[in-house]
Amino acid sequence: MGGQVQRAYGLSGFRMSIISTDQLTKTFGEVTAVDHVSFAVERGEIFAFLGPNGAGKSTTIKMLTTLLTPTSGRMEVAGRDPWRDPAAVRRTFGIIFQDPSLDSELTAYENMELHGVLYHVPRASRRSRIEELLTFLELWDRRNSLVKEFSGGMKRRLEIARGLLHHPALLFLDEPTLGLDPQTRNHMWGYLKDLNAREQTTVFFTTHYMDEAERIAQRIAVIDHGRIVAQGSPDELKCQTNTQSLEEAFLALTGKTIREEGATSLDRLRMQGRVWRGR
Amino acid sequence: MEVVYILWLRQLKRYVRSRARIVGSLAQPLLFLVALGFGFGPIYARAGGGDYIQFLAPGVIAMGILFTAMFSGIEVLWDRQFGFLKETLVAPVPRLQVMLGRTLGGATVATLQGIIVFLLTLGVGFRPAHVAQLPLALLMMFLTVVLFTALGTAVASVLEDMQGFQLIMNFLVMPLFFLSGALFPLAGLPRSIGLVARIDPLSYGVDGIRGALIGAPHFSLVVDVGVLGAFVVVLLAVGSYLFSRLQV
Predict the structure, then answer these.
(1) Sorting pLDDT into bands at 50, 70 and 90, what band is B83?
(2) Which end of chain B is more exposed for a tag (fewer CB within 10 A), N or C?
(3) From B17, B81, B87, residue closest to A273, measured CB to CB
(4) B160:A269 CB<8 A
């Protein structure tokens, strides 16, 4: 099946693709995190990238968003190679990271403003955009509180508000709804679908909530042990695996054993940070 | 330019908001001034060196800014740990601007810290000989501060975790400080120690600040400015390069 997928989504074949990868591979020492991955995302599509923990989702996103060099293979984002031409690629996308990326010593508003400057949101519209988004995610009343005083859910909402502050052609969302209540999740997906319809924003997201992927995504790729094991629309995946729901299809494709992620150097760093602060 | 400004402002806000850090980082210079200043003072005077506090104070100011500046640079590690670094690394702005904003912010913070330590030294009896040369002392402090912030950033860009941080403190920052002539005169040192002091950039920072505040520099103020300036250029270039290659 892998061979067929690779032939179908060659790097040069699809002019409409906003993301395409061809045999993309990343190894860390002995471990192959991403193993000859090939897929394409069309412009204006809502695309879900699914896989168990440690399957290689975040590593793939890091390579696509210029944060990591691939070991081999090719990739293109908006027609450019993220590694060779990072500056051009960075102008085309926005990202909401899986793990926290706020400055907790700044207020919610200051975090938004800093982002606005980094992403060239014009000064004239910056304030109103910040107000609109913070209000939308119900954080406007707390705009002048330091982020370190926020609860986990509030921080997550702020990350989302910040990621939506500028309107890029392509949005990466790495488990954006992790730790959010169903109301906020609904709210956020409503906003994103609207943005997708209005501005043809391409949305590339990962999630562990299969119902969410089934409901939102137009197309899905399933990755496991660093390899793409299936791609297609939610219906196609169900059909391929002869299952009733995407959750069942996912389990059929990736098995039922629980995965453990290897600790990265960043995890170790965090651990030490906790120990230090605990002193 | 706005990018550099907002990142500079960020460092400043973080500094002003962390009062515990400000107070904590003043304890060490104060301890050095009191314990060494008054402890070794009589011996130093008997050996014909004059008032030790006068000699020591500029060294302690240099110590205060060395630690704060290195720490500001190494904050890259903290930002990495708490995730904020990613936010700046994927932004559509040149990393040189990000690095500049951070470095200037860190440098401003460390300079402020140096000024506070200077006021502290006045409290224990230090009296600068040439009040008119205070701006010159400030320039020396600023050069020293930019130098070590850039060094800290460069080092933090290649480190992966906090264990490395301990290594840096023990094998880089402490030797830089103790061998710089902050605590003792460089004249008449054993050859090998004298040589090490000569390649320690902090020696020129200490000498510049001391020369500006009480006169009689060991090198000369022109040499101090020249060496500090050269180090600043090289370390900014190296730091920018390493920072631009940073991966998460």
Answers:
(1) confident
(2) N
(3) B81
(4) yes
pLDDT: which is higher, B166 or A105: A105
Decide if A202 contacts A77 (C-beta within 8 A): no
What is the tens place of the pLDDT at every residue in B129-157?
988 899 999 999 999 999 999 999 999 98
Nearest Cα of chain B lies from the Cα of A209 at a distance, in angstroms, of: 24
Q: How far is A87 from chain B (nearest CA, A)?
A: 6
User: How many residue pairs bridge chain A and chain B with CB atoms within 8 Å of each other?
Assistant: 91
Please tell me the pTM assigned to this model.
0.85
Question: In this structure, how many other beta carbons lie within 10 angstroms of the beta carbon of residue B125?
Answer: 14
Confidence of residue A100 (pLDDT cuts 50, 70, 90): confident
Specify the 3-state DSSP secondary structure of A214.
Answer: helix
Q: What integer pLDDT is reported at residue A260 of this predicted model?
A: 64
Put simply, whether B220 touches A (Cβ < 8 Å) is no
Nearest residue, CB atoms, A270 vs list B13, B81, B86: B81
Contact A106 B81 (CB under 8 A): no
Inter-chain CB proximity A269 and B81 less than 8 Å: yes
* Nearest Cα residue in chain B from A269: B161
Do residues A231 and A222 make contact, with C-beta atoms less than 8 angstroms apart?
yes
Residues of B in contact with A272 (CB under 8 A): 161-163
State the average pLDDT over residues A10-33. Answer: 81
Cα A137 to Cα A132: distance, rounded to the nearest angstrom: 9
In contact, A70 and A63? CB cutoff 8 Å: yes
Nearest CA in chain B to A162: B87
A106 with B3: Cβ contact below 8 A: no
Q: How confident is the model at residue B234, as a pLDDT?
A: 96
The percentage of chain A sitting over the pLDDT mark of 90, rounded to a whole number, equals: 63
- What residue has token string 């008997």? B46
In whole angstroms, what is the distance from residue B32 CA to residue B38 CA? 9
Cα separation, A15 vs B218, in Å, equals 68
**Interface check B21 vs A, CB under 8 A:** no
Chain A residue numbers touching B247 (CB-CB < 8 A): 67-69
Percent of chain B predicted with pLDDT > 70: 100
pLDDT value at A276 more than 60: no
Question: Given a cut of 70, is residue A271 above it in pLDDT?
Answer: no
**A19 in helix, strand or coil?**
strand
Mean pLDDT score, A141-165: 93
Mean pLDDT of all residues in A146-164: 92
**Chain B closest-CA separation from residue A119 CA (Å):** 6
Contacts of B10 (CB under 8 A, 6+ apart): A103, A106, A110, A114, B101, B105
pLDDT of residue A2: 39
DSSP states along B32-95: IIIIIIIHHHHHHHHTT---HHHHHHHHHHHHHHHHHHHHHHHHHHHHHHTSHHHHHHSSSS-H
